[in-house]
Specification:
This protein is an alpha/beta fold. It has a domain of about 160 residues: Alpha/Beta hydrolase fold, catalytic domain (Rossmann fold), CATH 3.40.50. Helix content is about 45%, strand content about 15%. A six-stranded parallel β-sheet has the order 2-1-3-4-5-6, with helices on both faces. Strand 1, helix 1 and strand 2 form a beta-alpha-beta unit. The longest helix is centred in the middle third of the chain and has 15 residues. The chain is globular and about 50 Å long. It starts with 5 loop residues before the first strand and ends in an 8-residue tail after the last helix.
């Protein structure tokens, strides 16, 4: 099994609690750290900051927005990333329609309607049918309050401006896992199948009984998938 340090990048409006089970379990065998994607309005800025914090070589786990930052890190510094796990994410740029749809919520946040924005961003329909949605929404709302409006505005702008990373992924030589919930209502299973097909020898892990947040909806199964990923052999670099 790989013994590289593990760097976790959370999704939008989330902190280390979104990876609580994974970090606690994997810290028995690895140095682990959280890299909050909170310091820029572009994926490039966020990636630069994270590279300044991280070890010279590390294994990378990114979820949602964090997965998009992970792809930018792969583009920018592939030699430093020993392996990568992408959870509930997409390599594609925001469509013009999606980018435009973010604007009213950003305006609402600036105008003081922060609770309305949080309610919109925490979408329980993206979760699996059997999930304890009340408890999960409570946790996500608390994380959103901790992250706050100003960081939300930066993250939303970074989502709008993100680049298409399909070419980056097609060239990666890092052992890669693509992990998704069977019932993900945000980035559907077919999108993750497409994502896995982009990446040479990527392993697709489908988490049963989970939606957009498999780390919280099915924490043990997601941790098991990460442990399998950590056992994947290194690819020979050309």
């Amino acid at each position: 099994m790989s013994r590289d340090p593990l760097v976790f990048i959370p999704p939008m409006l989330s902190d280390a609690r979104v990876f609580a089970h994974q970090m606690q379990d994997l810290s028995r065998d690895h140095a682990v750290m959280i890299a909050p994607p909170t310091c820029g309005e572009r994926m490039e800025e966020i990636a630069s900051q994270i590279l300044s914090w991280t070890p010279s070589k590390f294994a990378l786990v990114g979820m949602g927005l964090g997965g998009m930052v992970a792809m930018e890190l792969l583009r920018r510094a592939p030699e430093r990333i020993a392996r990568v796990a992408l959870i509930s994410t997409s390599p594609q740029a925001d469509t013009p329609e999606n980018a435009a749809a973010r604007e009213p919520h950003m305006i609402a946040a600036k105008a003081g309607r922060w609770e309305d924005v949080l309610q919109h961003e925490i979408n329980s329909t993206w979760m699996a049918p059997g999930t304890d949605k009340v408890e999960l929404v409570r946790l996500l709302t608390d994380m959103g309050h901790v992250i706050g409006r100003d960081v939300y505005l930066k993250q939303a702008r970074a989502m709008q401006r993100r680049k298409d990373q399909q070419a980056t992924l097609s060239k990666t030589q890092a052992p890669t896992a693509v992990i998704c919930g069977r019932h993900d209502g945000q980035y559907h299973l077919k999108r993750h199948e497409f994502l896995a097909e982009l990446i040479p020898d990527a392993k697709l892990e489908i988490i049963e009984g989970a939606g957009y947040l498999p780390t919280l909806e099915a924490p043990e199964a997601t941790t098991d998938a990460l442990r399998r990923w950590l056992k994947l052999p290194l690819m020979l670099r050309q």
